[in-house]
Specification:
It is built from eleven helices and nine strands. The chain is an alpha/beta fold. The chain folds into two domains: 177 residues, 3-Layer(aba) Sandwich (Rossmann fold), CATH 3.40.50.150; 57 residues, Helicase, Ruva Protein, domain 3, CATH 1.10.8.100. Strands 4-3-2-5-6-9-7 form a seven-stranded mixed beta sheet. Strand 2, helix 2 and strand 3 form a beta-alpha-beta unit. Helix 6 packs across helix 7 and helix 8 crosses helix 11. The chain is elongated and about 65 Å long.
Length: 261
């Protein structure tokens, strides 16, 4: 029986062979790789990934698709299927703590929290290739002053080198999504580009600043700093969050007291 895409899982299945070939070329999988694919769906990328000879782990939530995948690949000894929610998955456990490459056509409705979830394993991840809503990729790659610049931009760029690869038209999927998609490569950095004191402090400052992105810093982060403290950190309290660079956010993070709530 043909699988009916489920809206609650955000399922849009890739079927364009030209796009599939471009994605595989961008990933360039090798037999020595440990690959993890999130949301393999109907295995559009899975089969060409397997042809590389790499060890492949699939993370799929939809029980019907899990059953189909197990039937399709029952004779393959280099594939393991994990029936679980990627948002709750322990990727260290899945990979046995080994370095791995992450691939996924991510459901648009959970893509941002899923990216924050997988970045917990940034020291273990070699690289990531994701299909995302084009707007999300633009937000990841955005710089200060851009309307798309925000929390996702800062937190992703602190952890990774962000490289948008190419766009994918809606007609490449079934069902056809209402938005354009993009392929992005994320490569975790060995050393963060700025010193923040602690990642938690950076996260706290960035979240507060962008919670009221149209307000100036003296208002948006007033629960963390006084205007004088912002100025002492070398930042103009009259600026808005979208005007600050990653380095300027790092300055604020370093100035945040350890007991800040």
């Amino acid at each position: 029986m043909k699988h009916k895409p489920r809206k609650r899982f955000g399922q849009n299945f890739l079927h364009d062979q030209n796009v599939i070939e471009r994605i595989i070329a961008g990933i360039s999988p090798r037999a020595s790789d440990l690959l993890v694919e999130i949301g393999p769906g109907q295995a559009a990328l899975t089969r060409p990934l397997l042809e590389s000879g790499a060890e492949l782990h699939l993370v799929e939530l939809d029980r019907d698709l899990v059953s189909d995948l197990r039937k399709q690949f029952s004779d393959c000894d280099n594939i393991t299927i994990h029936a679980c929610d990627a948002l709750k998955a322990d990727f260290r456990e899945i990979t046995g703590g080994r370095p791995f490459r992450l691939i996924g056509n991510l459901p648009y409705n959970i893509s941002t929290p899923l990216i924050f979830h997988v970045l917990q394993w940034h020291r273990q991840i070699v690289d990531m290739h994701f299909m995302l809503q084009k707007e999300v990729v633009e937000r990841m790659a955005a710089g200060p002053g851009s309307r798309t610049y925000g929390r996702l931009s800062i937190m992703t760029q602190y952890r990774c080198e962000v490289t948008p690869l190419f766009d994918v038209r809606p007609g490449s999927f079934s069902p056809r999504p209402k938005v354009c998609s993009s392929i992005v490569r994320l490569r975790p950095l060995d050393t963060p580009p700025v010193e923040v004191g602690s990642f938690k402090k950076l996260e706290q400052v960035v979240t507060a600043a962008f919670s009221m992105r149209r307000k100036t810093l003296r208002n948006s982060v007033r629960a963390l700093f006084t205007a004088d403290e912002i100025l002492a950190a070398g930042i103009d309290p009259g600026q808005r969050a979208e005007q600050l660079s990653l380095e300027q956010f790092a300055q604020l993070a370093r100035a945040l007291p350890n007991d800040a709530n």
